[in-house]
User: Fold these one by one.
Assistant:
Number 1:
Amino acid sequence: MKLLEGKRGVIFGVANDRSIAWAIAEALHREGAELAFTYAGEILEKRVRPLAEGIGAKIVLPCDVTKDEEIETIFQTLRQEWGGLDILIHAIAYASKEDLSNPYLQTSRQGFQLALDVSTYSLVALTRQAASLMEGRKGSVLTMTYMGAEKVIPNYNVMGVAKAALEASVRYLAHDLGPKGIRVNAISAGPIKTLAAAGIAGFKEMLHYSSERAPLKRNVDAEEVARTALYLVSDMASAVTGEVVHVDAGYNIMGM
Ligand code: NAD
Ligand code: 0WE
């Protein structure tokens, strides 16, 4: 018996086949889940639609998470088509390029608001909508975070602050939704070369640095993140909520 037979999930954050969200989608599909996908704008539709349809997805819709109307449309459609929901995957982050290279000290009000709107508030907005579709279904919400929330990673800057607020949001949402049997968790992944990482100066050097220092002496891949995601959204993790699980080859435990 597959782990997610009869379960329905919606995935936010696929940009291409290297996206962590896509690896998670493949793992959930393999275990029998029926999935819906959203994409952020027309350019990404060309990438996301073929991937989604390739695993039998019937619902593939645009959603810029800074737009309340677009979020509403997604969940209205899921209510009409499915009548309920079991799984929400949130794998979205954005900060302006200059805010990931200038000193954090220079972050503008606008840059701060953009990063926290897209990367943090979106989890609250999506989870509120999802929860109303999860009534009586032991739902599960999963988001993606990074160690830059806990410790200073040079240049991660406002994204680190957004991820710190995201991790705190996981705990507050877990508290709000626990009584309804809905679980909320995060995976803190080690660095992986995705589209979001491709734009970062010196990313290759970061991969080398972390692989040398991590206890497992290597980096992680999206498939390894996806297997932990599968565990967290499945009944295997029925008593796990409000948690941040590190999938980073052990990097975060090191002090020297
Ligand atoms: P990715 O570029 O494949 O995914 C990021 C996604 O965010 C894209 O699909 C993009 O369309 C989406 N997005 C950005 N702005 C949006 C908006 N306004 N509305 C809707 N969607 C929007 O990169 P990824 O590495 O797979 O990132 C997924 C998540 O994993 C992010 O939260 C990221 O912070 C986190 N993460 C990544 C790494 C890494 O090293 N790659 C490590 C730890 C955590
Ligand atoms: O969360 C992330 C990256 C998220 C991200 C990436 C970009 C690149 C392009 C958010 N916004 C943007 N905006 C852009 O214009 N990661 C965990 C990957 C990452 O990003 C870093 C890292 C790591 C690791 C930035 C600086 C230092 C380390």
Number 2:
Amino acid sequence: MRKVSIFGATGSIGQSTIDLIARDPDAYQVVALSGGRNVAQLAADARRLNAQVAVTAFDDCYDDLKAALAGSGIEAAAGAGAMDGAAKRPADWVMSAIVGAAGLKPGLLALEQGATLALANKESLVCAGELVRRTAAQNGGTLLPVDSEHSAVFQALIGEDRAAVERVIITASGGAFRDWSLDQMAAATPEQAATHPNWAMGQRITIDSASMFNKALEVIETHELFGFREDQIEVVVHPESLVHALIGFSDGGIMAHLGPADMRHAIGFALHWPERDHVPVERLDLTQIGALTFRAPDETRYPALRLAREVMQAGGLMGAVFNAAKETALDGFLGHRIGFLQMAEVVEEVLARLSSDPCLTNDTMTLESVLETDQMARQTAETVINDLQT
Ligand code: NDP
Ligand code: MG
């Protein structure tokens, strides 16, 4: 039996992962499940999968979790130390599906145990790509992409000569506002931004899709995971969300990866890798689909893409600055403190204020330096948001 743990089990990716694992209970022994505030879901899944331990990231959720697990024999735990402890428990395969920079440490701890880390938490790579790769390499851990575009790139590269790759194209749906005017986008509410035309995802990534910050993070993720240069990575808007990525080779050929807009494909691929096995997703009928369309992203509407390229060129800890500023700006938008388009303004201003700090581009990357940078960028972003409001 394979030992598996799921961090972010109560979220959209976590629930899709549980759906796959619960279909084959004899194949998996569930070690740890982690969640945040949705304690009822966490406890229900821990009971269903007979997990060894269920952990909530928040101390104040402990009593509810303990009560919900009473009589089950499943350990209940809460808080940062308990999250670390759960990530250190030996497991063969670990899903990293916490949202935000909070997902970095559990992923690193799992890699330190030599686990295979199925990485949905793209923020880990944006904040600390070099550290994540180094931790995997030094401890015999394996990193597998779960983001649909990156799973697609990974799959399209199997058996190919990396040196023959000219370019990588990742697709973007365009999110909720792909056909909105800039004036409409300026007045958009969090509720409007949190609806996605094709994918059912958590609230934060859905809003990041509408602003293209999600795609901006994914451009950096492509660079960090596969080592392609910034100028080799392209983004095209593809409203149907059926082609997830394409690899262009030196002979002019292009390998495209297609699949339904269902994250269980990419999760299932990572779960079964290096083999392929049945995954219960819809089979595409190309004759029903009829047409696939593509267009260039408009960088005046989506400054996030330009900012991501500047961050990659700067390197070092600027990815951690970018991600933390983006997370804080998103909180500002969700709290109705800034408008939708002001999220990019905040991030650009934070990057400008911190880019002159030589420590951010030269220092060796450690978990401590990443977390310190993350905090500094969040504080700077708060200041910028306050300045915008007054
Ligand atoms: P959700 O918001 O649906 O779920 C987030 C999970 O993280 C929940 O389990 C939540 O707990 C937990 N969580 C929230 N805050 C914290 C915290 N501070 N510490 C520990 N745990 C926390 O997100 P998604 O599933 O949509 O996304 C998860 C990750 O996967 C993100 O990095 C996202 O970018 C990536 N991803 C998602 C895709 C998707 O289709 N959803 C596609 C590709 C990548 P609770 O809800 O109990 O509070
Ligand atoms: Mg994606």
